[in-house]
Amino acid sequence: MVVLIIGLFISIFSYNLFLTEAHAIPVFARKYKTSCQTCHVAFPRLNAFGEAFRRNGYQFPQNDEGYVKEEPLPLGSPAWKKVWPEGIWPGQIPAMMPIALRVESSYRYDDRSEVTHDFTFPQELELLTGGTFGEDISFYGEITLFEEGETGKVGRLFLQFDNLFDSRLPRHLLNLKIGQFVPAAVPFASQRRLTLTDYLFNSFKVGKNNFQFSSAQRGLEVNGIIKSRFEHAFGAVNGNGTEAKDKSTDSYDNNSKKDIYIRLGYKLGGIGLDVTGMELRDEVVNIDLTENSIKFGAFGYLGENRIRYSGMDFNDKFYRYGFDINSYYQNINLFGAILLGKDDNPSGNLKEVEVTAYLVEANYLFYPWLIGILRYEEINQYPGLGRGQVVSGLTLLIRANLKCIFEAQVSTKNDGSNKIFAGLDYAF
Fold this sequence. Notes:
The protein has one domain (2-427): Porin (Beta Barrel), CATH 2.40.160.10. The protein is mainly beta. Helix content is 9%, strand content 48%. The strands form three sheets. Strands 5-6-7-8-9-10-11-12-13-14-15-16-17-18-19-20 form a 16-stranded antiparallel beta barrel. A two-stranded antiparallel sheet has the order 1-2. Strands 3-4 form a two-stranded antiparallel sheet. The relative contact order is 0.15.
């Protein structure tokens, strides 16, 4: 059964691969009239230029207006700048609604489930949006219309004020993000992974504390780049994810204290974090997918979350800190991270739990459309349970905006299940 279903996926891929080439047309591809590969190795995984584009508030880091092919709708004349503050500073909005749709579907085999074989067509349906309100004010949104049978959920939705005070400070030094977003403390966001299987590193919980490292959070973040190579970020968030408003307290957070976090990083080799060193042409960006570079990072997160045990409420104070590395050499991308942490009272029994987590992944670019993936990760809680898994797979780009995924997930612990996936993922 497994072989038959995967064979059908391969047949579909082989047929489509040799048809006339098509270009992706999600939000930013439409705006700049370019392929998804300008920013992605394979969506949603970003290349070096895509990371710089994201950091710069979804603008080309140099001369953004010169690359825009969909003319925005002006909100006021440029002459209004001369009469400010007696007039409103002019801005822009996209001329067309900046909306894209992403659909994820898969077949799953699970050797320990009562339902061994399962079709999830579709598994997830997302509405994506992003753009700018003129120079240096940007926005991004991810709204899940359907996921695993549930409807209506906002994942990320935020506004960012970019390059603050750049008349006095270096450009790219200071940005302010406001809204619901994944904190910069997270080394490798789940939302930009290549695999169907989520990172254990990001998704584990401790006791009854529902905190997950890569969950979107409501809050504020200051971030930026220093001299092209050094990144910094500091933020304060609610800490309880995207939970609904508690009508009894008229609050989204479940306690008054805010979680805080920090990230620092430095990149050696390759292009700068602000694309310094990359040749930008008039019509297309000269992307080098075989960049040779290495980036080091350190992060810390300090939080407190309310938990319920035996009908009573308790507060669990916890911390996470660690180090990460992300390297590129020719066609291989090798990255990993280590996380250490402790929860004071995650189960409401006044017992501490210490946490360690490890992640290492290698991606190999056989061709621009064929990527091999191998990942090992492990989570240990003392005292408590441990989990570990090996994930291997292939990502095949049928088009820049349509990919086929073959993946195996093998548990390294006796109580875990082994799974096989075949998936389709597309955006338009």
